[in-house]
Amino acid sequence: MSKNIAVLAGDGIGPEIIEQAIRVIKFIDPTLILNEAPIGGAAFDLLGHPLPESTLELAKKSDAVLFGAVGDWKYDNLPRHLRPEQAILGLRKSLKLFANLRPAVLYPGLLNASTLKKEIVSGLNLLIVRELTGDVYFGMPRGVRKVIDGEFIDDLEGFDTMRYAESEVRRIAKIAFEISRSRNKKLCSIDKANVLETSQFWRNIIIDVSKNYPDVELSHMYIDNAAMQLVKNPLQFDVIVTGNLFGDILSDEASMLTGSIGMLPSASLNANKQGLYEPSHGSAPDIAGKNIANPLATILSAAMLLRYSLNREKDALKIENAVQQVLNDGLRTSDIYEEGYYKVGTKEMGDAILKKLSNK
Ligand code: NAD
């Protein structure tokens, strides 16, 4: 049966980069059904809400969602619940997307883009699996209250609650182990078990789940050391699994190893492997409509969609190889351009990928 993909282009550069990803998906499989719907500021302008009911319903009944980007400064004065960015939060919540996958891959052609020495980052290909819906970001209670004892009695204090339920850790662990199995069978779980109860609990559960995956080599690392190791020797990692807070920080750190925001795809999955796929960058209103945005992060997000939600590893690899070849040929959008290479626009980069896919 044909699979359904909801395509939500959004604002700023969203429509131009999504257009290129659509061309790639249609080339890979013209029978896939792509349904477009408005989201973000574009949806607010059209229907008065950044995540209209019709868009949400379409996303829910689709096998996967391909998302561009949302946001523009012109919506900055809207009340918070009507801001474009609320659309992503609403989608994550409604689709129960708890596993955020952020690969950091340094393509050989882009070695100079990384701020690290070539010998440290050459060959980098790691994946961070971040738990997305729990931890101190959502734990209750939280707020501001009066201190009732100790040195700061009667003062005001801000507080949050770090917490993870057992099944929350089990489900993210399962996704991380399964992905590790499909890669190099090496998983590193990152926590702060030497200080935090939540982290010790997290570690115990990860160890328990690992018994179902004896073929995957599991290691543990404290977050402070991991932050250091990621820049000292990033090649030691294959798949990393971690909680919401630590993952938020580490995935941004890892993304910078590759040097360019225009190259970074991401996926957020639920328990049924239904997923939302989007570039890691925003809507870049400063360059929107000029045909200069880099569409590769979105095209690589489409590859992840094929891999994780449609189970089409070969097609995902085809797209990733085409990206690598185009970079090897020296084509660069302006964000990754250096002297001596060929500067191309958004559409021309899409053309080049299609050409590679058709082996021309
Ligand atoms: P941004 O990622 O949009 O842009 C940061 C810088 O990177 C800009 O100079 C931009 O031109 C450049 N850039 C980003 N993507 C690029 C691409 N594909 N090719 C070439 N250059 C690219 O971040 P920002 O400027 O902080 O935010 C702009 C808007 O995007 C805001 O409204 C913000 O809320 C929103 N935003 C949305 C998402 C999302 O939709 N998931 C994520 C982050 C920010």
Q: Which stretches are poorly predicted, pLDDT < 50 over at least 5 residues?
A: none
Question: Which architecture of the largest domain per CATH?
Answer: 3-Layer(aba) Sandwich
Largest beta sheet: what is the strand line-up? Answer: 2-1-3-12-11-4-5-10-8-9
Instruction: Please identify the top-level CATH class of the largest domain.
Output: Alpha Beta
CATH topology assignment of the largest domain: Isopropylmalate Dehydrogenase
Distance between the termini: 30 Å
Q: Please outline the major beta sheet.
A: 10 strands, mixed
How many helices? The count is 12
- Hetero compounds: nicotinamide-adenine-dinucleotide
Radius of gyration: 21 Å
Helix and strand pattern = EHEHHEHEHEEEHEHEHEHEEHHEEH
Helical content (DSSP H or I, runs of 4+)? 25-40%
Mean pLDDT: 95
Structural class: alpha/beta
Domain count, please report it: 2
CATH-level-4 superfamily name of the largest domain: Isopropylmalate Dehydrogenase
The portion of residues forming beta strands comes to: 15-25%
The count of strands amounts to 14
CA-based shape: globular
Q: In summary, what is this structure?
A:
The protein has twelve helices and 14 strands.
